[in-house]
Amino acid sequence: MLFRALHRGTKECDLMLGGYVSRHIAGMSAAELDQLEAILDLPDVDLTDWLTGRHPVPADLRNPLLDRIVAEMMKPGAGLPDHLRSGRPGELP
To answer: Are 2 and 10 spatial neighbours (Cβ–Cβ below 8 Å)?
Structure first.
């Protein structure tokens, strides 16, 4: 699942979804892994729109894990590789 999250097909989705999964997969429950499997089956174009806030996630596709991923992507520096994330806009480590 980590490989699939990091190799989506679009760089934006690789960074956003892959980064989130890389940081959190070790602590995911069986239910969250099932939710992740469903997320990985969604098209990149749609995921990118939802993760960037361009469009809301349709109600029938929402799950608790996707809601957490979207919330994390709204934070400053989201989608950047860990070595470039400073938490402060405009500042690189």
So the answer is: no
